[in-house]
Automatic annotation (TrEMBL):
This is ubiquitinyl hydrolase 1. Residues 1-96, 561-589 are annotated as: Disordered. Residues 50-75 have a biased composition (Low complexity). It comes from the Eukaryota. Hydrolase that can remove 'Lys-48'-linked conjugated ubiquitin from proteins. Its EC number is 3.4.19.12. It holds the Pfam family MINDY-3_4_CD.
Length: 610
């Protein structure tokens, strides 16, 4: 009887524990008793039954707590949390925020950029150059340079900024960063003339042009698949919520005392974000503009470009990966840095494609067309040969290299890139000639290669001219071109009976970002006139004469009285004459590597490329 009462109490406790939960379906007595072992005593059976029923009661209570309907506020919060979690998971797939580089990666990065034994002066140059627009109204569209080393980085960014400011002003108000191919399809087929009112660009337009340029360049380095953006841990989170000049103050204070003298110094502060979406990278760069404007800006952007490319890929691009990218003893940006920012590959040469040296050895050049191009004074000195990929970019903007500095040359009219009959034929022949030139840009080829050029370009030289060119065992470009200019068109030449073929007149602008004293813009002070420190912008009038050499042009431009024909011929001669006597500066030599017969004029001080 006591046992029956105990069992009844247990069942009552079980029913009470099941309140606020769905009732369990009833089970028949035989099924309950069937699970009991037949060999147990009655006392053991009752004990086992109690344990099973207690465990079942506990399980039902837990299930009831989980299935209880939540309050409306809890449900809303949970839904919000779920949404935020999904958004975070979505972003996590696309971006890894604030990653530290490993000790090995930072040491490799530092060695690639600076090498071993780099001087403190070079490190100071690269740690004290921000990416800032000039405060001078006349040059406010340009980036101002104070340190000598990072000019290759600044000039290349400047070229892309001008592309967006001049040729895509309508795109600057859009948040999404368009990829280069999307921009090209809109205007590449028609002539477009940009405005020369450089003072009219607003601060917002310039900032957006800078962000679009940086995003485009980083994705170019990342094969249009990724971009890595480098920042500093000491300031990346300190500017949140601050505005305007207060950001500059906060960043300056955070950078106070910061010195990068080794890989370990860099590892302590360097952080990187990786992006696969141009829109996400655009927003991140937009938020980071104050950081790139700080004294660490140029170095951070170079690191971003290198990591976007990938350090192993950068080393594979180079002909000699043992040398640092920042050259000693003056800390200049190497050609590999400039090429990386122009075409996305850190190749060391400026010719098209690659040069076969035999024995499985190659020298790497520019393998594809580019948005903005490159010209160099070294070509006019016969130290190298710039290929058509860099000479003829999609937009009439060129980074100009000298022995120690990089500047920018640009035109407002895309028609300066259009080739007339003479230029088109010259480009065709020169491209075939350069493809056979194994001299590293020396401008001469073998007799066997020369015959290949003649077949490819459908040039039929008379036997006496062919023998004259080949008798030395090699063919020089300048001599070959003179023969082409005197060869009839039906033989593949460019003989011009009118003397006007190839004539062009257009304007170019040259920007040098180094802030120097401008005596023409002196400001009056109590102590007298003080020269203004500003970058330099020079407008050039370029005349490409119809003759092969400027000397021939100047001698023949005026029609002799005895040979004067009709009034129209005199008028043509007057149009062909330059407005002023030609002026000379090293920049003019660079321009003639692009337009070989060009003569240049300007007003005021000569343009400087140093």
């Amino acid at each position: 009887m006591a046992d029956q009462q105990e069992e009844e109490d247990l069942r009552m406790a079980l029913r009470m524990s099941m309140q606020n939960s769905p009732p369990e379906p009833k089970r028949s007595k035989p099924r309950d008793t069937a699970i009991l072992p037949v060999t147990t005593t009655p006392e053991e059976s009752r004990q086992l039954q109690r344990e099973l029923m207690a465990a079942a009661a506990e399980k039902r209570m837990l299930a009831a707590a989980k299935s209880a309907p939540p309050s409306s506020s809890q449900s809303k919060n949970e839904r919000s949390g779920d949404f935020e979690m999904k958004e975070a998971e979505k972003k996590a797939k696309e971006v890894n925020l604030g990653n530290e580089l490993s000790d090995k990666e930072v040491r490799q990065l530092f060695a690639i950029v600076f090498g071993t034994g780099v001087s403190k002066d070079i490190l100071a140059q690269w740690s004290n150059q921000g990416i800032r627009f000039s405060p001078d109204p006349e040059t406010s569209m340009g980036l101002v340079q104070h340190e000598g080393g990072p000019c290759g980085v600044l000039a290349t960014i400047q070229a892309f900024v001008l592309k967006h400011l001049l040729f895509f002003p309508d795109e600057l108000g859009k948040v999404a960063a368009n990829m280069p191919q999307n921009l090209n399809s809109r205007r590449s087929k028609s002539q477009y003339v940009a405005s020369n009112n450089f003072c009219a660009f607003t601060e917002d337009a310039k900032a957006r042009a800078l962000v679009k340029s940086m995003s485009e360049m980083l994705f170019l380095c990342g094969n249009n698949k990724r971009a890595v953006i480098a920042t500093l841990s000491v300031i990346s989170h300190g500017i949140e919520g601050s505005e305007g000049s207060s950001k500059d103050v906060i960043i300056a204070q955070a950078l106070e005392g910061l010195s990068i003298e080794s890989a370990s110094d860099l590892q302590k502060v360097l952080r990187v974000d990786r992006y696969t979406s141009p829109a996400s990278a655009f927003k991140r760069l937009e938020a980071m503009i104050p950081i790139f404007q700080s004294r660490m800006g140029a170095l951070l952007f170079l690191i971003s470009a290198l990591l976007s490319r990938g350090l192993d890929c950068v080393q594979a691009d180079r002909d000699d990966p043992t040398q640092p990218l920042v050259t000693a003893p003056f800390g200049h940006a190497s050609q590999e840095i400039v090429n990386l920012l122009l075409c996305g590959q850190a190749v060391p040469n400026v010719f098209d494609g690659r040069m076969d040296l035999g024995g499985g050895m190659f020298l790497k050049g520019i393998s594809t067309s580019v948005e903005v191009g490159f010209l160099t004074l070294l070509e006019s000195l016969n130290f190298c040969k710039v290929g058509q990929n860099l000479k003829c970019p999609r937009w009439p903007i060129w980074v100009v290299g000298s022995e120690s500095h990089y500047t920018v040359l640009f035109a407002l009219d895309t028609a300066v890139q259009d080739e007339n009959e003479l230029e088109e034929r010259e480009s065709q022949i020169r491209k075939a000639f350069d493809a056979q030139d194994q001299s590293g840009g020396g401008g001469f080829i073998s007799v066997e290669a020369f015959h290949h050029v003649l077949r490819e370009t459908s040039i039929r030289l008379p036997s006496e001219k062919l023998d004259s060119l080949c008798n030395s065992g090699f063919i020089v470009w300048s001599e070959f071109w003179q023969v082409i200019l005197d060869l009839d068109k039906n033989l593949g030449g460019l003989k011009d009976s009118t003397g006007q073929m190839g004539r062009k007149i257009f304007d170019l602008y040259h920007f040098n970002g180094i802030a120097k004293s401008d005596l023409n813009g002196s400001q009056a002070t109590a102590e007298g006139e003080t020269p203004v420190q500003r970058p330099r912008l020079t407008k050039l009038r370029v005349s490409v004469p119809p003759r092969w050499t400027p000397e021939e042009f100047m001698a023949d431009a005026a029609v002799a009285p005895g040979n004067a024909g009709s009034e129209s011929s005199q008028k043509d001669a007057e149009v062909a004459k330059p407005e002023q006597p030609p002026q000379h500066a090293p920049l003019a030599d660079c321009i003639r590597t692009r337009w070989p017969r060009a003569v240049c004029n300007w007003i005021g001080d000569p343009p400087s490329i140093v």
